[in-house]
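ERR on first pass: missing label on line 2. Operator R.T. fixed the label and resubmitted. Corrected input:
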Amino acid sequence: MEKVIAIGALGALAHEGRLDVFRLLVRAGPEGMAAGEIARSTGAVLSTLSANLAVLTRAGLIGSRRDGRSIIYTADYDQMRDLLGFLMEDCCGGKPEICAPLAELASRPCTAEGRTC
Amino acid sequence: MEKVIAIGALGALAHEGRLDVFRLLVRAGPEGMAAGEIARSTGAVLSTLSANLAVLTRAGLIGSRRDGRSIIYTADYDQMRDLLGFLMEDCCGGKPEICAPLAELASRPCTAEGRTC
DNA sequence: TTGACTATTCCATATTTCTCGAAATATCGT
DNA sequence: ACGATATTTCGAGAAATATGGAATAGTCAA
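pass 2 clean. output:
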């Protein structure tokens, strides 16, 4: 991932409303959620939400498809993985003692501590 | 990590100058680098750099200590790890197919692809 | 204590981002 | 075609962020 892309993604996530939306979509899985449904879940004003969805889309973090009158948004897992990879690459570029705990964090049993995978 | 802390850290990193500084400090290791040295390495104006170092400090991503006339900045690896953990926790809260590639990413041999750890 | 050096703080300006109401666009069922 | 539903786009004001020059503060060496 290029630096400018990473900066865009980081900036998109550095916002409470957008972070909430992104987490919601990650949890919603591949089926995604309609914009109105997202607004109801998060209490966001529709026009504000729409602007924030556009920011997340521009950052490549979410995608969308039309379904009748609704537009369904989904998290882009690839971009998410690339962003984490970029940050970890940065991290691992330095010292081994940083990398090790991260590897542990990523590979620990996902059933622990409320995780579902 | 709390959401508001994560947002602060993401926002701090979502800036070319600050991301450059942070990467530099991660690579510099525990010895860190003096502000002037950072400015020379990145070509930043000193007062601008100082403001950006303050943002990174407020976000908990870097620390500092005085050494004579210089102030030495160092990356805070714990905060970095917590931030990645927060993002991955979010990610893994959803579906297994997202988590698996991340675990692979984190645990692959660090000597591959230009990585040093 | 004076002068050189290192870095931060202060300040004004410029730029960007955020928000939401109103209007516009797209789709559907009848 | 019409009315209802779903969402986006537009516009404009408010708020936050970014920048660099000048002034300030801490440290050292002689």
